[in-house]
Amino acid sequence: MHPILADPRRLGLYLAAWLPVAGIVTGLFMLAGAGWAGASALALPLVAPFAFACLSSWYVCRTLPLHDTQFARLMGTHLGTAVLSTSLWLLVGRGWARALSDIFPGIEEPFVRQTPPLLAMGTLLFLLATALSYTLIALEEQRRAERHALEVQVLAREAEVTALRAQLQPHFLFNSLNSISALTSVDSDGARRMCLLLAEFLRSSLALGAREAIPLSEELALLSSFLAVEKVRYGARLEYEQHVDEDVRGCLIPPLLLQPLVENSVTHGIAHLVDGGRVVIDAHRRGRQLEIAVTNPCDPDRPRRPGAGVGLDNVRRRLQAWHGRDALLRVRDTPTSFRVELSLPAE
Fold first, then answer.
1. Cβ atoms within 10 A of the Cβ of 141, count?
2. pLDDT, tens digit, for every residue of 197-238?
3. Strand runs labelled E in the chain
4. Are 203 and 241 in contact (CB under 8 A)?
């Protein structure tokens, strides 16, 4: 459907733009000797159908794209269509003037006198309608291109998030299997218990990982399950503490967002301390932002790793994919502690 006919507001504005044209045509008939009433009765019913006839230029423009049509063919087709449409319009107008001659004697003569200027005016108006049609087509193509670009961007973001999710499970699974392998020779019961806890954790993480977003409370429950697996290996050396405000437990976050951070706390923090340590999670709201921090003690003499590591990089990229510039990841690395702070919209 024509974009003007499809929108009542556009149609109203379009018809309002033709009111001055109706006034000009009425004036032409009056200059040719018609009275005001006769000129109005002849002009108004004549201009209204031509306003709708000019809309047909849109369909011609659709078949002759500007970037794919030679200039000579373009101008010849549109000029010929404008002259033909205006000629048909004047032919109908002559019949209408003849029909009005019974009510307004002599009204046909002013119409005949003004036929040349009406032909020029009608041709110009049709060409202006053609220019308007090309403008509407260009706007429609621009909106379509923007919509396509947005769809591509969304699909790319979803693909990136899917790829980042896929990195999480193998990374943790390999570490857990290595831990089970180490336990089998020194603590077979612990290895068996760790296998059961690992199966429970993987079952829960797969269910949550399939969702687009989960409440913070479910992520924290998953972390407890993860630390239960790790505690089989580290025993009393591993402690866990949460400081989470109740009003943020329902905030939505990407699934498995915190698990790599807690895993890093255990693998690169607690594991290097003879007496172990405590992993602490803080979560609260600051304005419209959800603030989450994961802190763990560190060995001052631990070897420093170049770069941010796979886990941190994964979390940072997932935050950017989900929230763009509205989300931040900060790292505070001191000789005795390591702290990762997340800030994202509290939804």
1. 11
2. 878 877 777 676 667 788 999 889 888 888 888 887 788 899
3. 214-215, 238-244, 252-253, 277-286, 289-297, 328-333, 337-345
4. no
Which residue, chain included where needed, has tokens 């260009």? Answer: 138
The whole-angstrom separation of Cα 164 and Cα 26 is 71
pTM above 0.70, yes or no: no
Residue-wise pLDDT tens digits, 143-166 = 888 887 777 666 556 555 555 555
- Within the chain, how many helices (H) and strands (E) appear? 11, 7
* Phi-psi region at 324: left, alpha or beta (left = phi > 0; alpha = psi -120 to 50): left
Beta strands in 110-215 (DSSP E): 214-215
User: Start-end ranges of CATH 3.30.565.10 in the chain?
Assistant: 187-345
CA torsion 311→317→319→322, rounded to 10°? Answer: -140
Per the structure block, which two tokens stand in for 107? 């009204």
For 304, the 3-state DSSP assignment is: coil
Torsion 156-157-158-159 (CA) sign = positive
Spatial distance between the Cα atoms of 209 and 107, rounded to a whole number of angstroms: 81
CATH of 187-345, one of 3.30.2020.10, 3.30.420.40, 3.30.565.10, 3.40.50.720: 3.30.565.10
> Under a CB-based contact definition with an 8 Å cutoff, are residues 74 and 64 in contact?
yes
Strand order in the sheet with 289-297: 238-244, 277-286, 289-297, 337-345, 328-333
Which three-class secondary structure state does DSSP give residue 241?
A: strand
Helix (H, G, I), strand (E, B) or coil at 3: coil
